[in-house]
Structure formats: C-alpha cells, structure tokens
C-alpha cells in the first residue's frame, strides 16, 4: 500500500525532506493535500487528519500515514522510513547517529524559518521585517557558518569517507543535506556564493545527490514544486548579505 | 557502566529532560560538566567532547555517551534510553508515537527559548528586549495555548486512558510534560495561572509525576538545579502577561 504524506500544498517546506527520500527510493506514495477531493484527498483530507479524534493526533504537518500508524515530524518520519526505503545504515548505533544528524538539520530548518518570521508565525513577514533583518544578519554571520562548519566536519571525520554523512552508503541524511544547500542558495544567493570554497565536502555531497537518476527525474517532474515565498526557504533580497 | 550526560553546568536547560528520565529510573549516570577536573570531568570535559575529532561529533549539548556511542539531541537521547530505562512503550509503533510527541515538546522548548532570544542566541536578552516582548505576547496568546490544547487532546484520546501521554504506563514523554508545566509556570506565572482549569489532564499528569518517589527525592536533592535566568525557562516579569 502506498505511503500517505500529509503536507501543505503549494510549497516544498518541511515535506520536501520526506519527498526526497520517497522519490530516491522509488517508493509508492500519495501527496495527499495535492490530490483530488473526489479521491478523498486535497486540503480537506489534510485538515481532517489534523482535527481527527483518532488516538495520537499529529500536532502539525508533515505527517505520514502507513496503515494505522500516523508518524509526525520530519526526523521521526525519516527514522521510521529509512530502513524500509534502504536509506538508513544497517547498524543500530549508526541509525541513532543518523537521527541525531537529522535533528540538527531540523534545528537549522527552524532557524531558517525564523529569519523571516522571528516574532510570530501567525503574522505577515511585512509586519516583522525589522526583526527579520536583525535575525537574518545574525543567521548569515554566525549561525549558518556554524552549522555548515559542523556538517563539513562530520563529513571529514566520517570513518567510512566523506562521501556520506553517516556510514558507507547514501542515507536520508545525505538527501536532506542536498535540500539544505538548495534552499540556502535560493534564500541567500549572496551569502552562499562561496559555499563551495569553504565547505567542499558538503557541496560535493550536494552535487552527488543532484546527479542521482531518481533525483534528476524528480527535480524535472511536476511533483517538485519550485521554491517560493510561502515556504521555509524564502528569497527576500533585503534579508540576504548586503555586501560580500 | 554509568551513562555520561554532557550538558552545561548551572542551568536545567535541555539537559533536564534527560536527567528526569535517568533519575526516575534510578540509572547510574555522571553529569559530566558538574564534576571535578581531577576526575576528568568539569566544563573542560564538555568542551573536549564538543571539539573532539571522533567520528560523528555532537553539534551541541546535551549529548549522552554510552560506551563508544555518542547520542546527541534530547529526543534522540530519550528514544535511545527509553527502552533501557523501561520508560518507553514496548510496542514499536508506540515508540514512534512517543518520539513524535517528544519532538513536539522539543519544538515548544525552542519557542520558549525564543521568547527571550528572538533575534540571536549570541546577544544578551537586554539587547533584544523589544522583540522579546513582541514574541512573548504572541507565545502567550497563541502558541502556548495551541501546544497545551494539543497535549490535553492527546491525553483525552489516549485509548489506554488519560493518565499517560502514550500507552498504559509512565514514559519519558510524561516526565517531559512535568518539566514543561514546571517551566512554563516559572517563566510565566500570570499567563499560566489558569492552566489547571483549561488543561485538567495535563495538570493531573504533572501532579502525578511530581508525586513519584524518585522524582520527589530528585527535586529535593542538590542534583536538581533551581530555575534561573540562564536556562530555557526564564522569568522576566515584563514578558509575562500584563493582565489576566
């Protein structure tokens, strides 16, 4: 049976980290909110999932339904799917390592979101623009380099080589790193101009993922939405580095 | 062998969610940064752990060392420890549910942190106080109620009864919920004054955890640090609800 992914339509957002894993694995899945109402899908099905009286409701999208089990949170979904999609290490300890790395990626994603919404998710960007400029400046100067240095260091110290974030083979963590680089480059083209020079292994990993046949096919398909200003990674030129 | 918990000394912070699980289980552990330099502990040992050239370094505290394995991130540590401490459901699906709930708690913790540091972790509170007031107002009006309503709903819909967040027995998620209520009451005494009326099952769970012998003993011990204004939950009266 196909996995059911529940996430907002119209943006890549946090759902994209799950889509990349499903696409790489060629796993059957339904992107529920993007489906048709006649098929029991669409935004109404997403809202029904959020407001359901079933046990253990999810707090927010994305969540994944696999039969009776509803799995919320990107890192949790990927931890659950990883072994089934053959995108997780076989070793139990390395699976815990992978989960830790994915949670650091999740923290970075939250910080990226807060560059344009530092005061309130419920307010428009335009109503918190001054705070957004201050937070983005700090993000570009301090936070992004700290995360990127860390990811580079993880690759350099991987005992199985710098081709992968964890272990000897492609994992969902590698796929998420691809999305991080794509997203940061979209949101902050000036601030990310020299990523390849500073973090060569991170960019090599990004490029290797981008060249995988299933990922190439996905990125060219209609299933891949374009980045836009309703997602996590938003390009507001006034938040990018002024000079470089 | 004792578990080694690595977290900053002087504050409860994110480390406290791990401490509560270790304490409830009576598990042997060393709170490394609070130990003595002569014993290879203290803040130097924490910094060495962060800057180590070992494979898979942690990005930030807290992290747990269990033999050769270094486990970072609160939710990941608790997912790893849960079964060993008998503080996780036996059912694999419910363990995934527990992890999802813990990640929602982690998101709330991050939002609480950002009430006093909405612009930059590296800046003083006093240098971002206006933004902190705006974010705290939104947190108290919208975010805290949304999270608390959700947790109440999880308890009400637990098919095994509203005594626990997941399954039939105490889990690390319940212990974390205790800490959430404690922390919110410390940080926002006015805004949380009516929690018991609005979220009776959440408060009943808090009270049940607070009455457990191992938790009572821990809270009275020197191992439990007091809340203070270097932690996640900080009491700045100007950020609390003005009227209620």
UniProtKB/TrEMBL annotation, chains A, B:
<dbReference type="InterPro" id="IPR036282">
    <property type="entry name" value="Glutathione-S-Trfase_C_sf"/>
</dbReference>
<dbReference type="InterPro" id="IPR004045">
    <property type="entry name" value="Glutathione_S-Trfase_N"/>
</dbReference>
<feature type="domain" description="GST C-terminal">
    <location>
        <begin position="91"/>
        <end position="232"/>
    </location>
</feature>
<dbReference type="InterPro" id="IPR004046">
    <property type="entry name" value="GST_C"/>
</dbReference>
<dbReference type="InterPro" id="IPR010987">
    <property type="entry name" value="Glutathione-S-Trfase_C-like"/>
</dbReference>
<dbReference type="GO" id="GO:0004364">
    <property type="term" value="F:glutathione transferase activity"/>
</dbReference>
<protein>
    <submittedName>
        <fullName>Glutathione S-transferase</fullName>
        <ecNumber>2.5.1.18</ecNumber>
    </submittedName>
</protein>
<dbReference type="Pfam" id="PF14497">
    <property type="entry name" value="GST_C_3"/>
</dbReference>
<dbReference type="GO" id="GO:0006749">
    <property type="term" value="P:glutathione metabolic process"/>
</dbReference>
<dbReference type="InterPro" id="IPR050213">
    <property type="entry name" value="GST_superfamily"/>
</dbReference>
<feature type="domain" description="GST N-terminal">
    <location>
        <begin position="1"/>
        <end position="89"/>
    </location>
</feature>
<dbReference type="InterPro" id="IPR036249">
    <property type="entry name" value="Thioredoxin-like_sf"/>
</dbReference>
<keyword id="KW-0808">Transferase</keyword>
């Amino acid at each position: 049976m196909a996995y059911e992914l529940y996430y907002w339509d119209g943006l890549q957002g946090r759902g994209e980290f799950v889509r990349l894993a499903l696409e790489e694995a060629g796993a059957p899945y339904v992107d529920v909110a993007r489906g048709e109402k006649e098929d029991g899908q669409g935004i109404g099905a997403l809202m029904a999932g959020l407001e359901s009286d079933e046990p253990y409701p999810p707090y927010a999208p994305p969540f994944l339904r696999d039969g009776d089990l509803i799995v919320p949170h990107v890192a949790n979904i990927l931890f659950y799917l990883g072994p089934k999609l053959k995108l997780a290490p076989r070793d139990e300890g390395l699976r815990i390592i992978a989960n830790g790395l994915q949670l650091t990626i999740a923290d970075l994603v939250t910080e990226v979101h807060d560059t344009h919404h530092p005061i309130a998710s419920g307010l428009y960007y335009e109503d918190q623009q001054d705070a957004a400029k201050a937070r983005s400046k700090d993000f570009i100067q301090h936070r992004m380099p700290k995360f990127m240095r860390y990811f580079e260091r993880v690759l350099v110290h991987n005992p199985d080589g710098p081709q992968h974030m964890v272990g000897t083979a492609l994992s969902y963590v590698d796929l998420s790193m691809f999305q991080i680089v794509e997203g940061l480059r979209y949101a902050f083209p000036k601030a990310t101009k020299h990523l390849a020079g500073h973090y060569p292994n991170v960019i090599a990993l990004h490029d290797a993922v981008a060249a995988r046949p299933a990922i190439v096919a996905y990125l060219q398909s209609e299933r891949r939405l374009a980045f836009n200003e309703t997602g996590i990674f938003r390009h507001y030129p006034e938040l990018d580095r002024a000079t470089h």
